[in-house]
Specification:
The complex is a heterodimer of chains A (217) and B (219). Chain A is 16% helix and 29% strand. Chain A has helices spanning 2-13, 85-93, 129-135, 196-202, and strands at 21-24, 43-46, 50-54, 75-82, 99-102, 106-108, 113-114, 138-142, 154-155, 170-172, 176-181, 184-191, 207-216. The radius of gyration of chain A is 17 Å and the shape is globular. Chain B has one domain (7-214): Glutaconate Coenzyme A-transferase (3-Layer(aba) Sandwich), CATH 3.40.1080.10. The chains are: A alpha/beta (217), B alpha/beta (219). Chains A and B meet through helix 2 and helix 3 of A and helix 4, helix 5 and helix 6 of B.
Chain lengths: 217, 219
């Protein structure tokens, strides 16, 4: 499982460009920060109120006032800044964010995302996810291809309550990279240990194939 | 007016059925001492407006665990299992609001605005009960202003005039809530005489603050 998460995070890190301002969601998306190439400088925003977020501090140097949105100890880099939640969401909603990376319960071929509620079961709430999907220039979904019960998380249409309607731009799983286009999903890349047959078998959504199918590791 | 008060004075501010805004983001920047006093005061049937309901094994989460709340307006409740349990059993009414909408509703309440128009939530269940208003071809939800009786705020430094500084990510909802309540109570790590905080650096102007409690106050 950790290998799968690392692979997804590593692939998404390749999407980020020098100078981007990026917000990473809780969980697997947070791992993307560990795989940014050395020659790419990305500024991370934390929705609880700062830009310039750096890695976890060494043991013993954690500060309870300096945590990310998932309550994990982090650091702030030189040039960073703290602000209140209204400013934080002005950054997010106001079009100042180049990209966000979020997890998914379900994502579909129209670019809809569901990740905040399983009615009657799990209702954690949307937190900042609805603002992030509406406001960020690019919305990248980081998700395992299937649920623990081996059912496709990439669907013709989400059945769970939506977080965002038509806002997803890219879906990265341990098997595949799909781009969301006006014509639906476009399969652009296949993981080196997967195959088109396996992806067809494990993807409930319809998708077309990019002219040049690439491989990723 | 002397704004610096002791804990007995603070306890006297709480009452049943109050509507409270409590600063903090999953316990970071939460006014733990004020929450302690609220718990001691015995206030019940409270409405909480806040980003979340804390952790069930930490301070802010105890308002739920000890069943002091009848209603919560928050963006996220996943870190406190008890909130979900009471919601499902019907003991606690929970209204979930996107975080950026929640903070703007509070800001609108403090700024005298009739609400804000946000694109967040269009096409999702959040839009179901909202008025949708089109501006220049784009749809927005009307998010109405929120106010409360009492704000519980955590500051790093306060001066005796009530001017506040916050520390790191502990700022979050605190400065916005300090503008949106009838009375504002601040828990400060350090209280200094007026004049010691540079007016250029003040985050929350003291005119918003009614009461300040030193959070290291001797028992």
């Amino acid at each position: 499982m950790s290998e799968i998460r690392e692979r997804i995070a590593r692939r998404i890190a390749q999407e980020l460009e020098d100078g981007d301002l990026v917000n990473l969601g809780i969980g697997m998306p947070t791992m993307v920060a560990d795989y940014i190439p050395d020659n790419v400088r990305v500024i991370f925003q934390s929705e609880n109120g700062f830009v310039g977020m750096g890695p976890r501090p060494p043991k013993g140097e954690e500060d309870p006032d300096l945590v990310n949105a998932g309550s994990e100890p982090v650091t702030i880099k030189t040039g960073g800044a703290f602000f209140d939640s209204a400013t934080s969401f002005a950054i997010i909603r106001g079009g100042h964010l180049d990209a966000t990376v979020l997890g998914a319960l379900q994502v579909d071929q129209q670019g809809n995302l569901a990740n905040w509620k399983i009615p009657g079961k799990l209702v954690p709430g949307m937190g900042g996810a609805m603002d992030l999907t509406v406001g960020a220039r690019r919305v990248i979904v980081a998700t395992t291809h299937t649920t623990r019960k081996d059912q496709s998380k990439i669907l013709p249409e989400c059945t769970l309550p939506l977080t965002a309607k038509g806002e997803v731009d890219l879906i990265v799983t341990e098997m595949a990279v799909f781009r969301v286009t006006d014509q639906g999903l476009l399969l652009e890349e296949i993981a080196e240990d997967s195959s088109l047959e396996e992806i067809k078998e494990k993807t409930a959504a319809n998708f077309s194939l990019a002219e040049e199918l690439k491989t990723f590791v | 007016m002397d704004k610096i008060v002791d804990k007995e004075k603070v306890k006297g501010l709480f009452a049943d059925d109050q509507r409270l805004m409590i600063g903090g983001f999953i316990e970071c920047g939460s006014p733990h001492k004020l929450i302690d006093l609220l718990l001691e005061s015995g206030g019940r049937n409270l409405t909480l407006i806040g980003n979340d309901t804390g952790f069930d094994d930490q301070k802010a989460g105890q308002l739920v665990v000890e069943k002091r709340l009848s209603r919560v307006i928050a963006s996220h409740i996943g870190t406190n299992k008890e909130t979900g349990r009471q919601m499902n059993s019907g003991d606690l009414e929970v209204e979930l609001v996107p975080q950026g909408t929640l903070v703007e509703q509070i800001r609108a309440g403090g700024a005298g605005l009739g609400g804000v128009l946000t694109p967040t939530g269009i096409g999702t269940p959040v839009a179901d009960d909202s008025r949708i208003i089109e501006v220049e071809g784009r749809e927005y939800l009307l998010a109405k202003p929120l106010r409360a009786d009492l704000a519980l705020i955590k500051a790093w430094k306060a001066d005796s005039a009530g001017n506040l500084l916050y520390r790191h990510a502990a700022r979050n909802f605190n400065p916005v809530m300090a503008m949106a309540c009838d009375r504002v109570v601040v828990e400060a790590e350090e209280i200094v005489p007026a004049g010691e905080i540079d007016p250029n650096q003040v985050v929350t102007p003291g005119i918003f603050v009614d009461y300040i409690l030193q959070n290291g106050e001797e028992e």
